[in-house]
Amino acid sequence: MQVGMGVIFQNPGKERSDNDVYRADMALAEMAEPLGFDSVWTVEHHFTDYTMCPDPTMFLSYMAGHSKTIGIGSMVVVLPWHDPLRAAEQISMLDNMSGGRMILGIGRGAGKVEFDGFRLDMGESRERFVEAAEMVLDALETGKASYDGKHYKQPEVEIRPNPFKSFKGRTYAAAVSPESARIMARLGVGILIIPQKPWAHVKTELDEYRTIFREVNGEDAPAPIAGGWVFCDENPDRAYEQALQYIGGYWKTVMDHYQFDGEHMQNMKGYEYYAKFRENLLKAGPDGATEFFMNLQVWGTPEMCYEKILKTADMIGADGFNGVFSYAGMPHDESVRNATLFAEKVMPELKKIGPAAERLKNAA
């Protein structure tokens, strides 16, 4: 199993300066390769303290220059917020600079504050994502960008520097709703799973995704990569207490950033799943929703963390796990301890796990 580190630059409540958060999380990211992680990732967000990384390719360029072999992944580049031509150029440039180490993750976004800030109609996000993804993925394979769609019209131009190797097999997309999973199958990309729903539901949707992927692409879909917020501690009681504080604190930032207590998604085109998700959250209440989210994440002793990741990976057929170790205002020394203990006690065991295809075959 491949094991990555996610870095998200959170600063809830602005209790520290943004610069302090950046220095701390960049220092943690630079530990990823020495600790033995296979990859380091970041995610694009704008305008709030939820995630202060408006340009994943810029951060990943920094990481490419401060590492030698580790993979560098976008989790994700939100295509509707970009000119797809510029996105293709930046991705190709980063891949050339890093010697082909980029793992491309793309998505469509779900934050109203971000669509409003970019002066975009959130109801057009799915259409924009599909058009932009088709254009970017084709440009990265052919070295030429052109498109004639509803939202994007691009006369043919060459991508320079030319993409020097294929992105097939190393391109993934975040898919929360069942509709998005079907779109990703038709695009021929893998799935990045950010845990927000019961894993049994995720498995059902992945089964449909794999069927469509095989029908459209004539081959099996790549194994998904699962993410998770991690709190690892030798003391199970402390692990629970701190997970409640920090993973629970992270969940609050999710609610605030995406405005799940608002009504804007009720009739928003393309976000029908999120409207149902919001209804379930309101029924559960704040404490119930926090407990539900906590139980999807990875916390406990090293043994508990390993067993939870293994159980989830076997259920959904994942070959990768990306852990987030610094979030919700966690002190830097706690984040370092968290990531180091995980790397020393959990990661070596995860790396012994064979490919998902073999595990699923043996289980059958």
From TrEMBL:
One of its GO terms (cellular component) is cytosol. SUPFAM superfamilies: Bacterial luciferase-like (SSF51679). Residues 1-313 form the Luciferase-like domain. It holds the Pfam family Bac_luciferase. One of its GO terms (molecular function) is oxidoreductase activity, acting on paired donors, with incorporation or reduction of molecular oxygen. Coiled coil: none annotated. This is LLM class flavin-dependent oxidoreductase. It comes from Minwuia thermotolerans.
